[in-house]
Automatic annotation (TrEMBL), chains A, B, C, D:
Source organism of this protein record: Allosphingosinicella indica
One Pfam assignment: NAD_binding_2
Domain annotation 3-hydroxyisobutyrate dehydrogenase-like NAD-binding: ranges: 166-285
Keywords from the named record: NAD, Oxidoreductase
Active site residues per record: 172
Keyword NAD: yes
InterPro entries in UniProt: 3-OH-isobutyrate_DH-rel_CS, 6-PGluconate_DH-like_C_sf, 6PGD_dom2, 6PGDH_NADP-bd, HIBADH-like_NADP-bd, HIBADH-related, NAD(P)-bd_dom_sf
Domain 6-phosphogluconate dehydrogenase NADP-binding: 3-163
Protein name as annotated: 3-hydroxyisobutyrate dehydrogenase
PROSITE patterns from the UniProt entry: 3_HYDROXYISOBUT_DH (PS00895)
GO terms under biological process: organic acid catabolic process
SUPFAM superfamilies reported in the protein's UniProt record: 6-phosphogluconate dehydrogenase C-terminal domain-like, NAD(P)-binding Rossmann-fold domains
Length: 288, 288, 288, 288
């Protein structure tokens, strides 16, 4: 069993850390707002530290699930960052969805200190984190991912080593691009179904078994029809992720017309008050 | 067992008629280009007729799977149309993907003659027709669909009665709208994967189990990656279908920005020579 | 001076007919709702007729400015259509914005009767019609346009013979396509100006002299900023025109992604109650 | 007459500096690649300096026209930046198109040192710079712009004080957003004109006087028709500028669907080799 520092106890991080503790690892947790760390320790044991550096002292592995590029930068390489206190032979796993650029920068810094780094953004959402059934898309060396895998298995149903440093983040971008198209198509399908006066249940029954099927159709059709959006993966996060993909596309030369358009449509839903709602709230700009 | 007139022996119609014959029904077939009808009879028995009207004489049910609104109009109500020769108490099933307007017009004409009409466009493609696993989305009265169901079961795995006359066609539009979004998202995902230099198999493994999953992703990712498009559902048909949806939206007030955009992107693929290629060839305008 | 039958006394037709009367021509007018025709005669002299055919009897030229393809078809070739009563050597000018297909069909019918036909949709709007400063974009033979020109000069500042039958209509489509792009760009510029908290007058002063300049910017910036839209060219008409362009593009293979998208955005403005508002109300879906 | 340090002698900067010298000011120029500075001095007199700081020593005003946010940051606040060597009471004018954020950051730094700062991106392109007829859209205090105006008049036909620090940059974004819409509309109009087989000269004559008119239509229609794009404002710069607008919109909440889409279409033209071509090369993705 390993000594693990876990940084970031939000919607995703808290249940991930819980699964690690339940698996028998010994945890020191840290969170920007310390009350979350205190509450977590009260509920799940272990201890909490005031800074990433303090948490990392003596750890075999440091795992982060914070918010943005800046957050990851700060918790790793900031003045109180974990890297200040990590020794050669340790492991760093980042589950935050960030740019490939920062993932490579961290891996580079890790290499200089002998820290093995894995960029491993996840899909599966809050439910996946709670149930320990996340999918982790991983970038890094074979060895780094080999070392990380037993830890990640505590909360992941699927762990795929896609490629070198940053490949995990790039794969997450592919994931979000595909989702953007699915959701805009689904939003228009829902909107048209209503405008045409069709029975939504019958339509779903008729179309969900064939070429139009998608995870989103199976899991979001009913809530979109009822206008329920206060759950799931927040539009603010989705815009962050689409922004990462669009930035990366600027570098690699890809053209992403639909992703760019949907990103702007999300701006309209944010303006309608939907920033914290599930990405399926994309339909709101058509239905309201 | 019923006496059935089958009109239209194309990619879809020929195998549907074959399943009916195999189920023991007695068939008279008709096709615009008579050689297809002759060949079908040679292979599967029954007889062929020179006109829809001739085929319909004495039939319990007339089933059509032709091309467009004009085609359906002609085979039902044209000078040699089937309706000239159908008596009260018979059944007309249309599997062509057409407008809701023409479906309602035919049902109206049927009502005057005592012919029960079902609009029942299908999904599942050529493979579904060959294997008898189509999904039929049906509009019409409870009785009409009740009468049609045993016949359609010869080639359908799923038969859903969605609503009144035209509801089948409207549901097919919903289906195509959803597919358009899925395919544009998937095209950009494929394109980005290549631009980013990722291993396509690893990416698929990582993303196909979660929120980005779709039938198209599972069934088209590999062929899109390899640039194989000479199979499946033709772009020409897809543009016809999106055109039907966009026309209907003009009437019911729905806004379909993505469907409209993808329809234009398909024009670009047609200009690249892709008119007869599978709808997944949408990726060609990004990759070439 | 000529004997002219004028069909359609709407926002555009009434002032056009008035300019013809003022130029000394003798007019018989007809309008679907007869009260408009009676009112026009009361104000401007001449006489009115109950049907297009009646109006056309004895006329040297018949000029139409009605609504849609169906309307033009009816007033020319319907049971009471003008063509029933026109003799060889007369002239037909159509100012309605319609499809190139119907323009060609009418010209073809005209040719069989010895009627010279001109398709001459106009730009310049209500103001252009009132002031007699319209621009007419014309399709037809050199002779037909030569004959039509002196009449059209009564209300046109610019008359361009673009090409054969239908070329006038196709040119009008080009015009509307260009406008759609300009207006969406301008809408986003206005919206961004507000979101950025800039002084609209200063911004207009800074940008209206250069590469971003457009007729719409010069003439609509202020009203868009103030949210005034109850004037000008109605969105319902614009959608009809974009529909004509998109239909024609289906035939000629052009891809019009932006026109298709803006057409859908207009559906959103129609749903907001903007159907009769000026096309610049496109900004409403961003600003409200 | 003033002592002026001019930083950045590219397509825009070199002629701007030339106009200043011609107006009698005394210039010290600096450019990243020193050969441009040497050549400029050979042609127009003055002297050149190895670093921005060296150029700025003793200057009354420092004027920059470099490339990006990073470039402006470096030439002002980098280790060899001009601000190291500027004294209270001097003036800094930035003609580079950059973010409002960096403009505000520089103004803030200027304020601490008593340097008056103006963000003054320009429009008018290379021709405007050569002919001294640029339009400068300015952000800053009344005093700063008052001081800058006489210098900028050497190469500007129009100078508008739009608002506080950053307002010049925000106005330039408005300009580019409007242009993006105009150019996509125009590209589709050009493409449709060709697909419809119309005479481009006649079409231009017919549509350029009315509601579809734009600077781009008047100045680019012919070259777009002929496929000439090796001049003008480069697509690489346009994507930078649209990127700035889209980034700013993320902050101010604006939705820019068309700007986002056109930005991606430009990626397609870059992939076709159009990175250095005029922005009107947007039509290439439709015509080729
Ligand atoms: N929610 C979801 O469904 C999914 C989220 N993700 C990604 O996972 C990441 C986390 O998402 P989620 O858990 O929902 O977000 P939350 O905002 O709920 O959690 C982020 C946590 O990180 C902490 N944090 C941020 N910065 C720092 C810092 N510098 N030092 C210490 N702690 C810090 C925050 O602290 P504080 O309490 O102070 O805010 C917060 O508790 C994001 O990148 C997101 O895109 C990926 C897949 C699904
Ligand atoms: N292909 C697919 O994967 C799917 C197709 N569809 C829909 O099913 C319909 C048929 O598609 P598909 O089978 O692929 O098309 P095909 O073109 O292969 O078949 C259409 C058949 O109808 C015949 N036909 C057309 N008009 C007439 C007429 N007036 N009188 C007699 N026969 C006529 C044609 O004859 P001829 O031999 O002279 O051309 C042809 O054999 C379309 O509406 C399509 O959108 C729906 C789902 C999937
Ligand atoms: N071109 C146009 O039509 C218009 C351009 N603009 C904007 O004006 C700016 C300049 O454009 P343009 O002149 O065309 O671009 P160029 O690339 O031709 O010129 C930029 C110049 O700045 C120099 N430079 C860049 N960074 C530094 C640095 N750190 N230190 C010293 N010199 C530096 C470059 O040096 P080096 O020789 O080493 O590359 C180059 O000479 C851009 O922001 C552009 O968006 C605005 C309106 C129109």
């Amino acid at each position: 069993m390993a000594r693990i520092a876990f940084l970031g106890l939000g919607v995703m991080g808290a249940p991930m850390a819980r699964h690690l503790a339940a698996a028998g690892h010994s945890l020191v947790v840290h969170n920007r707002s310390p009350e979350k760390a205190r509450a977590w320790v009260q509920a799940h044991g272990g201890s909490h530290a005031a800074t990433p550096a303090a948490a990392a002292g003596g750890a075999d592995a440091v795992i982060a699930c914070v918010g943005t590029d800046e957050d990851v930068d700060r918790v790793t390489q900031g003045p109180d960052g974990a890297f200040r206190n990590m020794s050669a032979g340790t492991l760093f796993i980042d589950h935050t969805t960030v740019s490939a650029r920062i993932a490579r920068k961290i891996a580079e810094a890790g290499r200089r200190q002998g820290i093995a780094c894995v960029d491993a953004p996840v899909s599966g959402g809050q439910a996946g984190a709670e149930n320990g059934t996340l999918a982790a898309m991983c970038g890094g060396t074979e060895e780094a991912i080999g070392a990380a895998r037993p830890l990640m298995e505590a909360y992941s149903a699927r762990i795929v080593h896609v490629g070198p440093d940053g490949a995990g983040q790039l794969t997450k971008m592919v994931n979000q691009i595909a989702i953007a198209g699915v959701l805009q198509g689904l939003s228009e399908a829902v909107h048209f179904t209503k405008a045409a006066g069709l029975d939504p249940d019958k339509v779903l029954e008729a179309v969900s078994g064939g070429a139009a099927q998608s995870w989103q159709m199976v899991n979001r059709w009913d809530t979109m029809m009822r206008g329920e959006f206060d759950f799931g993966f927040a539009i603010d996060w989705m815009r962050k992720d689409l922004g990462l993909a669009l930035d990366e596309a600027r570098r690699n030369g890809a053209s992403l017309p639909m992703a760019a358009l949907v990103d702007q449509f999300y701006a309209e839903v944010q303006a309608m008050g939907g920033a914290r709602q599930d990405t399926s709230a994309l339909v709101r700009r058509l239905n309201e």
